[in-house]
Amino acid sequence: MALIPLSLFLGGSVTAIPVVTGIAEGVSHQKKQNEEAANESRMIKFNILISCDSKDELAEEVDNGIAVLRHDKVWIVPREDRDGKPFPVPPIPNMQPPLHAFAGFYIQYPDDDRVPPERGLVSTISDDPPMLNWIYVDKSTYELRYGNRTASIEHIVGEWDWTEDEMRVMLEGWEGFVAVDESSAMSEEEWEQTPWGKEGLRWAIYYDRDDNGLKGRRGKRNVFEIVLHRRLQSKEDQLKQLEEAERKMQVKSRGDLKTQFTAPAAERERASRK
Ligand SMILES: *[C@@H]1O[C@H](CO)[C@@H](O)[C@H](O)[C@H]1NC(C)=O
Ligand SMILES: *[C@@H]1O[C@H](CO)[C@@H](O)[C@H](O)[C@H]1NC(C)=O
């Protein structure tokens, strides 16, 4: 089966993502950027599976995990396989809204002030309405977060990449990711008062930018090195999703909404009445 055309995947929004950059840059650079931006392999959606080599007992909680998005942060929860597909196992029953696994791809971050432009990473944050956000690293805490362009632009938004074998995720040319136990610096009671503690979320993904185990940033929290594996969506699933998206996506290309896809109001209304 042929790869999914980029324009299809984005519901015809290609023009909404600026590919043309400053005139100061050379033509060959521009050409490379355009090719990169149009590279369908970069647009194949993937989930992120976590592994952790540490022998520490606690590390078992993150080994065999999957990345999920919640409370503006990227968390690790255990995963289970259903029909060969990975699904997050919710730490507590009946989470509302349900846990949303990272499901994303690479695309150039639209910012004229970043020269050369940086390859960003987006993920859906909900399926209905279908919405995409940027995955970025908070510049002061180094935690992974998600948000729209306004929320992300002053932080570390790239350059996201894959390893040479395309199997794992990299940022700024290396795999400096760690899992941080957000519960480990507070009492159980304090923990249960936090929005994530209420939902049993403990392990957040951070980027150890200075390669020192988050020295000066981790406090008393437990930190483990982890690896972010790309689990590509099957061609079948990509197609199914495309058809669904085509059916209900309407791209708003105004200003900050450039990276957000929302369902037409009428459709949303119909869905909520169901
Ligand atoms: C697109 O990405 C694939 C996989 O890395 C690579 O083999 C191919 O050369 C790229 N194509 C372009 C036009 O950059
Ligand atoms: C972008 O996200 C911020 C919060 O991070 C929010 O206040 C703002 O309304 C969002 N902008 C749009 C256009 O959705």
Question: What would your notes on this structure say?
Answer:
The protein has one domain (4-273). The protein has helices at 6-9, 27-37, 149-152, 188-193, 195-198, 235-248, 265-273, and strands at 46-51, 65-70, 73-82, 85-88, 100-101, 104-108, 119-127, 130-137, 144-147, 160-162, 169-171, 177-181, 203-207, 223-225, 227-232, 250-251, 261-262. Helices cover 19% and strands 30% of the residues. The strands form four sheets. Strands 1, 2, 3, 4, 5, 12, 13, 14 and 15 form a nine-stranded antiparallel beta sheet that branches. It has a four-stranded antiparallel beta sheet with strand order 6-7-8-9. Strands 10-11 form a two-stranded antiparallel sheet. The protein has seven helices and 17 strands. It is an alpha+beta fold. The structure holds 2-acetamido-2-deoxy-beta-D-glucopyranose (2 copies). The site of one 2-acetamido-2-deoxy-beta-D-glucopyranose has 4 residues, from α2. One 2-acetamido-2-deoxy-beta-D-glucopyranose binds next to α2.
In round numbers, the mean pLDDT is 82
Largest sheet: 9 strands, antiparallel
Our Rg estimate from Cα atoms comes to 19 Å
Indicate the structural class. alpha+beta
Number of domain modules: 1
Number of strands: 17
Classify the helix fraction into a percent range. 10-25%
Ligand inventory: 2-acetamido-2-deoxy-beta-D-glucopyranose
Shape: globular
Strand content: 25-35%
| Cα-to-Cα separation, first versus last residue | 36 Å
Helical run tally: 7
Low-confidence stretches: 1-25, 250-274
Q: Could you spell the SSE succession in H and E letters?
A: HHEEEEEEEEEHEEEHHEEEHEEH
Biased composition (Basic and acidic residues): 246-257
Region (Disordered): 246-274
Keywords: Signal
Signal peptide: 1-16
